[in-house]
Every structure is written in structure tokens, then in C-alpha cells.
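Example 3.2
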Amino acid sequence: MRLKLVMVVAAIAALVGAGSSVAIILSRSTSVHVLSSPDLVITSTLVLPIACVILAAFFVYRHTARRRKTQALLTGVLAAFLSLGVFILASIITSRNTPTQPQPTPRNIG
């Protein structure tokens, strides 16, 4: 098997697919309201990682001579797990360390 090809293509597919999705989400969503009513661009972020994984598996399938199906399957699974890792890493990096507390509203007593 060409493990170098499988690993490099899976890593590139994960970075391109998940990285572009994360970049689109972070650049477009300045508030939660944008994510609650998504448009075509936000919805396309669901398709980008899947398309990159499929293209990577197809690329490996076409550029290997032996055990094509095994290498393509391995590339797809590895790229999917790496994409998930990129999403988890991005959510950890962009999360807030300290939660914001809501300001107490003044009450008129009397």
C-alpha cells in the first residue's frame, strides 16, 4: 500500500474541507441569529467536508495500482476522522474560557 499517499491526501482533504467550513462559519456568523436562520452559504458548509472526503478517496482510488478499494476506504475513513478532529479543535480554540454572566437587571422596589 502507498501509505504516504493515503495519509497525505487524507490530511489535505481534512484541512481543506473542514478548514473551509470553519472559515466560512467564523467569517459569516457574528451572532447566533445568523446560524439559526441559515442561508445557502452556511448550508454549503455541510457539503464541503463530505465532498472533500469523497474526492480524496476517488483520487487515491485512481492513483494506486493494487488494493484500490482498501486504500480508497482507508483514505475516506481517515479523512473523515481528521475532519472531525479539525472541527473539535476549532471549537476548542474559538470557545470562551470564562462564560459571560448576564448583568442583573435593576428592580424598582417600592
